[in-house]
Amino acid sequence: MRRISRITVAGAATAxxxxxxxxxxxxxxxxxxxxxxxxxxxxxxxxxxxGDQSFNDAAYAGLEQAKKEFGYKTADVEPTEGETDADKxxxxxxxxxxxxxxxxxxxxxxxxxxxxAAEKFPDTTFGIVDDATINxxxxxxxxxxxxxxxxxxGVAAAKTSKSKVVGFVGGVDIPLxxxxxxxxxxxxxxxxxxxKVLSQYLxxxxxxxxxxxxxxxxxxxxxxxxKKADVVYAAAGLSGQGVxxxxxxxxxxAIGVDSDQYQQEALAKYKDSxxxxxxxxxxxxxxxxxxxxxxGKPETGIVRGDLKTGEVSLSNxxxxxADDAELQAAIKTAKEKIISGEIKVKSS
Length: 348
Hints:
Elements: H1 6-10, E1 27-30, E2 39-44, H2 55-70, E3 73-77, H3 85-97, E4 103-106, H4 111-120, E5 126-129, E6 139-144, H5 146-160, E7 165-172, H6 175-191, E8 196-203, H7 214-226, E9 231-235, H8 240-249, E10 253-258, E11 274-280, H9 282-294, E12 301-305, E13 312-314, H10 319-322, H11 325-340
Parallel strand pairs: 2-3, 2-4, 4-5, 5-6, 6-12, 7-8, 7-9, 9-10, 10-11
Antiparallel strand pairs: 1-3, 11-13
């Protein structure tokens, strides 16, 4: 086992020790023991931080599940504005130095930091969500076939639209978000070639706030709605909340992303306007990596979630969506064809 006996730890009186990460973003820790040997999973959030009702919150859900099941101390760290790769690496190194294992960077922006930290701590398992570029013996690249769930979102949008115009709002103009756009547009066109897809990216870089600016998302959605879009799909992190708000205000449909946004408490007043969400199970990926370390068989290399594994999907929380038999049949058919390989979904 990689950590000392919890019985031994529990028998010793320990004093509370705060994480020394003041220069690297605010940190939340939880657990019953402060012994280095009893520390487990730690995550460092992407832009938007905890409370984005999307990507980061899904990672936190995985951390909470691991903490509950394994009974160890966890940590989750917020990003800071204008931080560098060196700041991110320092954050991961600090977590590893304190004994956390595994340590996960949530988001592709952690690529350089994870690579550097993993080299410094070869006995610690690191993970990175949404990046497949790190090839190291102690790193798990946790990636997803987002284009597959987005294709199904496109089917739903095309079948639901009455105006024959739908919209896509991407947070940042990068290859990762291109996957969402490509799958969505393909799903729309394969379902109804007469439906027009309006697409817009909020910013060119994450530093400009594309994943963290609900006001930008709201403005973009309003522009698409003015052009007759009656279903708008957002892949924009925290900015997607603005898209959902605009959809609700204009009585059109929004499609959420990453988490089941119909179920998110912070979006409760808009939920009747959330048709479905194209989900990727970041929580499961985070938990599975923690479990693999706990079991003594750490995951490494590329670990991919897709429709076949059940780690990307559409949510069925909205009864109006779940109870539409024709719509559900179309989605089921498309899903089966993707899994069988009959439909090849584009990723760019």
